[in-house]
Amino acid sequence: MEGSLIWILVVHILVIAYQGEVGASERIQKDFQYNPKQPYRTAYHFQPSKNWMNDPNGPMYYKGIYHLFYQYNPYAAVWGNITWGHAVSHNLIDWIDLEHAIEPTEPYDINGCWSGSATMLPGGNPVILYTGADFKNRQVQNLAEPKNPSDPYLKEWIKAKNNPLMTPINGIDPQFFRDPTTAWQGPDKRWRVVVGSQIDGHGTALLYRSKDFVTWTKSEKPLHFSNKTKMWECPDFYPVIVSRRNGLDTSVHSKNSKHVLKASFDDQDYYIIGTYNPETDKFIPDVDFMESYLKLRYDYGIFYASKTFYDSAKRRRILWGWVTEADDKLDDIKKGWSGLQSIPRSIVLDKNGKQLTQWPIKEIERLRRKEVSLQNKGVKGGTAFEITGITASQADVEVSFHLPNLHDAELMHPEKVDPKILCSEKNASAKGVIGPFGLMVLASKNLTERTAVFFRVFKSHDDKYAVLMCSDQTRSSLRKEVNKSSFGAFVDVDPKENISLRSLIDHSIVESFGGGGKTCITSRVYPELAVGQEAHLYVFNYGTKSVTISNLHGWSMGRAKIFPAHGKRMFPIPN
User: Fold this and answer.
1) CA triple 80-505-233, angle to 5 deg
2) Cβ distance 402 to 547 under 8 Å?
3) How far apart are CA 343 and CA 329, in angstroms?
4) Which of 163, 204, 293, 424 could form a disulfide with 199 if both were Cys (CB 3.0 to 4.6 A apart)?
């Protein structure tokens, strides 16, 4: 205990010294410092200093500190040698990257310490369940506990002596048995946990129960399965509350709560909402996986293997997601790193009860610097204009559009089309009636390069409208080897009211939130021209009908502080 207090005191002294050492003008310069040797490295998204990173693991809030663990290769910018990296923060924006938390050292995890989750036990101490690839390359579930629970930084972890706790027996395929969820307690005080699997070719959430968190018994029936999907990776299961913006602890159940089951498959994170009975462990979805044309996802772009946690300090549920690269493997090796974490998002049940909404956590706004704004500006069809005055390669932009005339909208039946294909066919260059209108980000001065995030509005049936949101990367880079796919989804909003868009732009990543976070699309882009100070930001409308910008606010974004464990300085981040 004494050693932890001394360590905390030392690093707090260092941060005070650092703040005195770096003046305001120097901090501003560092905020927007561009490195031409690393044009795609981000300024305010979490990433280690080098090498490969994938799934977020075991996020938690403990003794005033936020913890993020992540899948990490300590030796290269490609997948392999998987270890649990570990970073800590006071605000979910600035981070200290600590020593590795869990390393592949034992027969039950010698081929990799794969994904898992953290659970808070009744006494308040955290434990971790994770998948190990054992010496036979079977997937097994293991337990790790903090060596010193009084240390808020949880710098050291000890693996349980009786690992593995769960093994692939009774017909479970040892290659499809991984990624345990955060556990929850039922009214009988027994713990439950879900492990992702594939049974007879069907995606399955295997359910296990335990009285002591050590001896686990598989339920005869899974929590849920689907004959329309294959392997479920990185499942997540948690409660959400109707008509409230607060989150719920994973073990909480109430009359007004629903439950979310998320599964990662087909390179996407799909989710369903339903009713869970904690007495019988029966989960009944309102609409099952792949049974609706909407096919609900957290994000319709590049976003996978996500994990949520309950933030008890601010009574909210927070979502992390892995954002992969979209360039070539050789590019990753050359630049020396691969993989980002999304900006943490608050996630709640929408007021319609049919879907979730997500929004960047409030803390990200502390990085906002210089601001520009517009109100009530008309944008004629076939025009675009530049938003100047902010750093376009490192920005946060919020804009809302008013559509004065919807009568001439093109006809379309949303249940009969694939929105991603529709966005590819009707990209930003394809003129329409109402749209495309939105933002062109990370654009070169002459628009040779541009990433367009935009809307189109269609008339569907019974005088109702369908709003399509697209992220078009087809002209994002002159480089030929990068993936320039387009992404798209419908947004459940009424276009008779304002349509809103928020985009977080950070050099090679664009996270966009449509309709107040009802639809989210994340993209990775690698421009050659639109880098650093040569990046530009435009509002455009290539439809025939005019639109009006009700409000636009844009900010240059500062740089998050991410300190490596072996750096010259280590200090906690000020609140």
Assistant:
1) 35
2) yes
3) 24
4) 204
Q: What is the pLDDT of residue 564?
A: 85
Contact 538, 385 (CB under 8 A): yes
What are the residues facing 512 on neighbouring strands? Answer: 503, 521
SS3 of residue 173 by DSSP: coil
| Phi, then psi, of 527 in degrees rounded to 5 | -65, 155
- Residues 6 or more apart whose CB falls under 8 angstroms from that of 61 comprise 67, 309, 310, 311, 312, 313
Query: What is the tens place of the pLDDT at every residue in 194-205?
Result: 999 999 999 999
Q: What are phi and psi of 25, to 5 degrees?
A: -65, -40
pTM reported for the whole predicted model = 0.94
- Contact by Cβ (8 Å): 489, 421: no
317, 346 contact by CB (below 8 A): yes
Residue 310 lies in a domain: yes
How far apart CA 394 and CA 230 sit, in angstroms, is: 38
End-of-domain residue from the set 320, 343, 360: 360
Cα–Cα distance, 239 to 34 (Å, whole number): 42
DSSP 574: P
Report yes or no on 41 lying in a domain: no
Residues making up the chain, counted from first to last = 575
C-alpha 296/C-alpha 135 separation (Å) is 38
- Residues with active-site annotation: 55
- The ranges of the chain with pLDDT < 50 are 1-4, 6-7, 9-25, 567-575
Please give the order of strands across the beta sheet that includes 394-402.
368-379, 547-557, 394-402, 499-506, 509-514, 519-524
571 within domain boundaries:
no
Cα–Cα dist 397/535, whole Å: 14
Domain enclosing residue 258, as ranges? 54-360
The enclosing H or E element of 379 equals: strand 368-379
Dmax over CA atoms of the chain, in Å, equals: 72
Q: Does the residue 405 lie in any domain?
A: yes
Residue 276 sits in a domain of what CATH number? 2.115.10.20
Q: How far is CA 136 from CA 48, 108, 112, 119, 179, in A?
A: 30, 9, 12, 28, 18
DSSP 303-344: -EEEEEEEETTTTEEEEEEEE---S-HHHHHHHTEE-EEPPP
The residue whose two tokens read 């699309």 is: 521
